[in-house]
Amino acid sequence: MQTSPDRHEYPAHWEADVVLRDGGTARVRPITVDDADRLVSFYEQVSDESKYYRFFAPYPRLSAKDVHRFTHHDFVDRVGLAATVGGEFIATVRYDRIGPDGTPASAPADEAEVAFLVQDAHQGRGVASALLEHIGAVARERGIRRFAAEVLPANTKMIKVFTDAGYTQKRSFEDGVVRLEFDLEPTDRSLAVQYAREHRAEARSVQRLLAPGSVAVIGAGRTPGGVGRSVLGNIRDAGYTGRLYAVNKALPEQQKELDGVPAHRSVRDIDGPVDLAVVAVPAEHVPEVVTECGEHGVQGLVVVSAGYAESGPEGRERQRALVRHARTYGMRIIGPNAFGIINTSPRVRLNASLAPEVPRPGRIGLFAQSGAIGIALLSRLHRRGGGVTGVTGVSTFVSSGNRADVSGNDVLQYWYEDPDTDVVLMYLESIGNPRKFTRLARRTAAAKPLVVVQGARHGAAPQGHAVRATRLPHATVSALLRQAGVIRVDTITELVDAGLLLARQPLPAGPRVAILGNSESLGLLTYDACLAEGLRPHPPQDLTTAASAADFHAALSRALGDDRCDAVVVTAIPSVGEGSVGDAALAQALRSASAAAPAKPVLVVHVELGGLAEALSAAASTAPQAGPDNPPQKAPTPAPAATQPTAATQPPAAEAPEDTHLIPAYPAAERAVRALGQAVTYAQWRRDAADPGRVPEYDDIDERGAAGLIGGLLARGQGLTLGTDETCDLLGHYGVQVHRALPAPTPDAAAEAARTLGYPVALKATAPHLRHRADLGGVRLDLADEDQLRRSYAELTDLFGAPEELRPVVQRMAPRGVDVVVRAVIDPAAGAVLSFGLAGAASQLLGDTAHRLIPVTDREATSLVRSIRTAPLLFGWRGSAPADTRALEELLLRVSRLVDDHPEVVAVTLEPVVVASHGLSVLGASVRLAPPPARDDLGPRTLPAY
So what's the pLDDT on residue 917? Predict the structure, then answer.
């Protein structure tokens, strides 16, 4: 490590792992004096043409002076970064700070020259683009605001790296050289470019894991049983289309096969590439396996081995070492302690998991952090029983285990553009990066439904998961996910119910529901369930128990043709004839009527009608058919007689047309209606997301003045709560006026304050135990003159003690209205959050508070005000005067702008805010300042650090 006196301390926080364009990973770190040999070796592998482009002349080798220059940096004015794979350099970048005349300089000079060199074998992988993001972040940290680069016109690849980065730039041509100058301040375009590159790289890294051309199972036992041998058998039995290998170092040298699969003692012995390795050896032997895989060029690992962070501190350190080791070779990891992965595509047919049966191919992407929950979800989706038609199968399945590397965020990147996935179902026990998850969820939900159930909602995350600290309660996080378009459910039953509806039925155009069936009681239950879910049901239509299939067809056709109906729930009871021909006839009638009006969703509520549930889905089953692309699969274990049969136990169904809608069936009205209600809410979110609104500009906002005030206040210390005058001053810069409250330490001071403010006034105790607690009697309102004021002052001191304890203040009376609370806080994990609710018991006791991520648009402010359960109090409930919600929405938008413009404002509370019929009054306010939390979403792309 460098120890020269002119050098600064080694900046370890610049080290990072990045995902490259092809899905592999590389390590980015500062170059030090210890890298001389690596630099020379790297340069020897660069082509003469690339060397010419770098130095503008033939430059076959580096001199000792060059090596010294390129490895000795002060980490301020001269910085070099390298991208490494396997510990060796694959690319370098450096900057040198320069003055206005182009000569070497020190701060306060804010410009630097930048230059890259990428090994030819790694060009086209996006290495230079990633290095530009990281060297740019380093330069900004060191006070450099602008880069300059000189490039030969023929070096089009490097010119493209700069021009595609999205920064504001200037281009000139002189003496045969292209000179590019660009500002390093992130722009909307540069962030969009960064996010797009992140998406392509992470999606590709997951695609390489889910669709490998070859798989090696390392740790496949010599005798039947065991994890490795089971996974090997599952891959083979699923009909995997690629090359499969068994690896076990304990195999006799003469043994060349294991269960009909080519067998080897080491992955090094395999003749040909291995794209994916499934690691099923004891944890203490995994490092040796990772080294062998890395040296053989394996692209990714699924580690099913246990004994990592889930087992305690020692295992946690073993997990960190595993991730660091794998990333050294550019490999990504699913796991450790993973259940495995499945891809049902006929082009792949991969079951690299502990699931003995492959789920039916279908359009649902399934992610589970827990193996046990993954088994339960696969089972529910596979079978017809349990009250839900399970005919809609799975496209891909990922069980991440401890998710030490590949997480739900990565898989979302893949599913967003996967043409084989229409609906995403996720079981999450923790969200490692809520800010990024919310961003990806919003983008995904705009294209396809995303349904999430969260485990560990009321306790700590599982031991194996690295989770960022958050101060937000679970209810707030759930509200923010809903704002991002996520369909939040509470159980895996609801997860499957919603997923099956969304996978094969259109989204409803509104909340109006028609109900028809052959049971009046079941229809009434469905009607009540619709009201409970906020839907608008029509009165149920009772077809009577004598209804025929033709009656159902006619009634459903009429309902679907009614412009006042957005969805239909069909109810059916056993009198239709369980297991009889009537089931098939009824199912055909419902499918026929639904197919004639494919724009509206249809759901069936059935009571113990296994035959109907099967018949509804039989003609449109996605169960794999035997053929050249789908060999017959092993039949699952037959269901007990008391349950409904699984699809695989039924006779093969005829192939259905592609446009046939599968009709989901549910065993209870509330389950069907809850799924429909979630679909209605999501459909409305999709329509709203098409026009999210805008963040308005206000001419009276003084952003520069607020910045100067904040800077001066923070100069006093790292974090502070502002005093009353400072709070009013800062809020005033954003057009938020706070009613003055004058201290009243004595009755005479109270009278003087009232004369200053003007009667009528309010007298309030502001001691912590009485503040905002009018129910305790610490507030006196509408005091019209000095006599009333002095009398009230005496009453307060008699009741609660001396003025020193009460801290009384006098405030001018505001117009009567509805008391509300507005809060904003910057959470280190989720980001800036704006919250709103009514003051008092409504928000404190009942938790009736709504939340939005900052910055808030005008449409979001409107929905925020209306989304609390007590919102009717603002809109003239029981004949009261409606409050000025337009003024309230403007206040919300101004607070949002303040926190968004100045991340040093880490907390704002306005309480109470009295919203009158015309205008509003902010009667209390507090503001806290602190250095803002780091925004890794604005920095260069990185993988979570280990």
Answer: 94
